[in-house]
Amino acid sequence: MFGKKEDFMLETRRRQDESKLRTADWFKTATRWTQLTFVEDDPEKYDPAFWIEVFKRTKSNAVCLSAGGYIAFYPSRIPYHYVSKYLGDKDIFGALVDAARRLDMHVMARVDPHAIHDDAAKAHPEWVQVKADGTPLRHWAYPDVWVANAYGEYNTVFMPEVVKEIVRTYDIDAIFANRWQGHGVDYGEDSARRFKDAFGHDLPVRPDASDPAWQAWLQWRRRVLTDVIAQWDDEVKAIRPHASFIPNMAGASLMEFDLSVIEKHCPFLVVDHQGRRGVECGWSAGRNGKRIRASFPDRPVVLITSIGLEEEYRWKDSVNTPEEMQLWINDGTAHGLNAWFTKFNGVVPDRRWVEPVSEAFELHALVEPVLLETQPTAEIAIIDPSTTLRHWSSEERILAERHELGFYQALVEARLPFEMLSDQMLSEDKLDRFKVIVLANASCLSDAQCAAIRAYVERGGSVVAAYETSLCDENGQPRADFELGDVFGVKRASGPRGIVKNTYIALTQDHPVSHGYEGASRIIGGTRLIDVKAEAGAQAPFLYIPDFPDLPMEEVYPRAEPSSPAVVTRETSAGGRVVFIPWNLGEIFWEVLAPDHARLVSNAVRWALKDEPSVIVDGPGILDLAVRESESCIALSLLNLTNPMMMKGPVRENIPLPAQTVSIKIPSGRKVERARLVVAGRQAEMTVKDGRVNVRVPEIDRLEMVHIIWA
Fold it and tell me: pTM score, two decimals?
């Protein structure tokens, strides 16, 4: 669709007002990024004219360019800062910075401090990460070099000098660091001493959530990395006050950092989850942005997208299918994330990415004016359980995330728009933005966090919670009972137990949470179970059917009647509603994707909402929805996920959706002035009835945005 625009649409780009360049708020107009990651022989082989044309064609208004760290692409004078052997008398970094500035682009310099060369390692062995056996760590992918120790003087003495040299010499707005957080435990003498001085433990030998030394090391690492952010940012601002240090936040939430330091030093946030890998949903791009935004909902978030495949085999100079690249960028756009694509290697042997990236960036440019005037909003929030997840190693964390992933998928299928909120940010003003909060399995919560949730319910908020939520404190220590048991209306009787096979829950009461199962007296249950007793005033629309064998087949029948509660509901004195599911609903739905479990999630959340959702979308297919509002308008993004490759890329083709009907509640005292289809570029067909504005969306190719302007 966008490839057919007139040539001038590719040649022309909005030139930014000079007043928006090199200011403290420069990042607010850095909304479409090109990242070029140089390789060592680029000084001799790459064509800068090609890349300048890419800047124009993609309507990029910001660029991130490799400057230094592992390899410098400018004539560095810092001792042991390795300069590309192909650089000669060139300065390819500086030349491209100048070219970008002539296009009125914002510029960020990339550094990668995760590896060092032999000369530096010999002169400064303390800069090299040490393995548990006491030997220095060779790079796993390129054994000619060494893995840098991120927790010592390499990042606190050497790299700050590199950063200062770049900021002094070049007209840039920020330093961006990739792979700066380290690669596991460093067993060097300095790290061991500092860690023991701080926490009294020897360094842990393996990731183990139950090991106090491992938990202490996670805290120590968090402290060290947070200090690095503050130090580098202070160094940058001392030279260029408008500029910042922007750390790559990887693909997780901000659980690894002190949020007060992030708030002070990071004016915008970058999420580095560049594409799908293995079995992964098309909505993952938006989810990663939501998780970062869960801590700072008002800050711009940038989503990095790779033009290549993102599988474990690391084809880093490959080209993915056009539809897969666009799905990733477009889903980020739907959720208000700024667009960023990255290319490794300045030489371009395969140009099939240029057109699809240009189209996706043009789509971002179409909706950008609405994105800039609105803020994300929703009636529902999934709580990002950072306090729980930080007890897990990064390699195993996905196992703990499955509970939330299941709820996420179920809400997408139910077409219930939602945001995310970090459990580190449970203040009254942040909680009260939402009518319902979802705790998929926030097993580790402090007394203070539980008190904040309890107070939210006492103010009339509603909660949907599952499995072990609040059964451990913030340090992972088990409690005798749910700290939020009074909120859930339950007391723990026994468990958790599992894995249990062949479990079922019986429909025992007529309740909105148990509707939609006509013809069934029971549905499948979970695999990890907790037995609870319901408190007075609570209802149990589902009961556990006591265990019975799954083999021999002749023995597969229940021996006893349904007994203890499998779902507990209650209405609070403040007018809210609570649903508690004492088994692993989210986790097992993510694994099995049973429709009965998706319905249970949807029923629970809809009942907890009490009222009809403010946004309703009817029609065939799967959509990822996102709502944004301002004083004068509301905008609904509808991202088309309907594709046989929705759960695993790469997408082969884009399958347009037929007509959808959007119904949006009109705020009290407001009238509708007009409705627009932003991507289609025309006024929308609409009617107003019973306090709602109804809009017909004739077709959705990849993304459409319904923009309602209030009178």
Answer: 0.94
